[in-house]
Amino acid sequence: MRHGCWVALVVAVSWLASGCSETKPDCLGAAVVCGGTCAELKSDNLNCGACGTACEAGKVCSNGACAVTCAAGQVNCGRSCIDPGTDRGHCGASAACSGAAAGVACGSGEVCSAGACVSSCLAGQVLCGGTCVDPMADRSFCGASSDCVGANDGVVCASGQVCSAGACALSCQPGLVNCGGKCVDPKTDPNYCGATSAACTGGTACGPSAGCYQGRCEPLCAAGQVMCNGNCIDPLTDASFCGASGYCTGVSAGSVCQAGTACQAGGCVCTWTQVLTAPLTAAPAGAIVRGSGSAAAVYGRTAWYQPSDWNVLLIPHGLAASDAVFAVEADVYIPAVATSYRYGGIAPFTTSATASGALGTCQFMGGIEGALFARAGAGSTVEWWNTSVCAWSLLSSQSLSPSPAGAWHRLRIEGVRTTCRYRLLLDGQLLSTSTASCDPGGTYLSLFGGALGQAGQVAWSNLAVYKGGAPSCVP
């Protein structure tokens, strides 16, 4: 509930003569009816502190008392002390309060917020009586909320009290200072930026084109940007303050993206540089075909088709020996299977050697292989193999549901060559990992496709090879 105006009682008649009333049928905000007109008892020179109490010549009404000068943060405009950060008649005024320094009168439907006429209040403020106020610090609307009407209009703090954190109190909370009867944070308040001590000295009004950052007036950042360490940054892309928000301090300062990573959409992600791309509508330059295989129109696209029960396409991968972090990916199609299994796999590092120089079942080359097996029934699996000439070693097998058969899928292997740490992904989803020994020295990658006891009919397209920026790219 609002407090009414209080006038020292000399006689009952004096109360009626003053025109003071607890009802405010047509007055805005904290104004009361005095002599038939609305008056702000905190700043009206003719009704200072009480209806009918006029300030003598040379003095102005400041916070309900006649004074020679205005309280800190206020300016004398027409012998009335006003807050240029919220006053609609002198919005943005400075100490001289004349000419251009008198500020501007906000138009119909506008309010004065942080010294500028705007259509709505800033975040954390509410519109009370046509003025944007901070309900956490405003003595006239302490604790106000929502539409600032009725029970939502807060309370008027008594003489000697301040509004601190939305409640009337004898003093401000730690870290806040009392400026013109308001408890403000001098590190962030644009009207008292950098103020020190309980007396609110040394502060600066930043004005409508600047904000208060860590007690310093700084230019306001464009929409979507955040002030970090004195500079406006984009928290969605800045590698030093990735994901920053608010006043960019502590946990709100975001993250520093490490070498080999970049800030994307507010998060640090690995940077991948493409070193090879091959649509596989023909054999890539330098490729070696083992078994059988050719480009063909299959499964809705032109792709590298491997029809027989074992097939290998070896392709120079384009990675340098120093490129320890890598990724190899390609689209693979494995037909449905009625008996036994069909498979498609990638071996990221192999050689072109064969056993005793002969082609045949020993054409599979040394290295690690991640493969998808489409089996009859519900037995499809994803498997890791460590292979050498005429020697296969199954490292792990994991059930896969649903079966990858009968559709195009993106198969990807990411790894760190120096540690043989690998990840196998299907359509962007992690399937399994391996840390087995490997041969990181091969200059080829292999695309395997085949079947057991039947035609393989496996197809590949859209091959790509990448080098990663940091080992953290492969978690």
Short structural summary:
By secondary structure, the protein is an all-beta fold. 1% of the residues lie in helices and 37% in strands. Among the domains are: 226-270, no CATH class; 273-473, Jelly Rolls (Sandwich), CATH 2.60.120.
Overview of the structural elements:
With 475 residues, this protein is mainly beta. Among the domains are: 226-270, no CATH class; 273-473, Sandwich (Jelly Rolls), CATH 2.60.120.200. The protein has one helix at 12-18, and strands at residues 32-34, 37-39, 60-62, 65-67, 75-77, 80-82, 111-113, 116-118, 126-128, 131-133, 162-164, 167-169, 177-179, 182-184, 210-213, 216-219, 226-228, 231-233, 261-264, 267-270, 272-278, 288-290, 294-298, 301-306, 310-316, 325-333, 341-350, 367-375, 381-388, 391-399, 408-416, 421-426, 429-434, 444-451, 458-468. The strands form twelve sheets. Strands 21, 23, 24, 26, 31, 32, 33 and 35 form an eight-stranded antiparallel sheet that branches. A seven-stranded antiparallel sheet has the order 22-25-34-27-28-29-30, with no helix packed on it. Strand 15 and strand 16 (216-219) form a beta hairpin. It starts with 11 loop residues before the first helix and ends in a 7-residue tail after the last strand. The model is unreliable at 3-24 and 355-361 (pLDDT under 50).
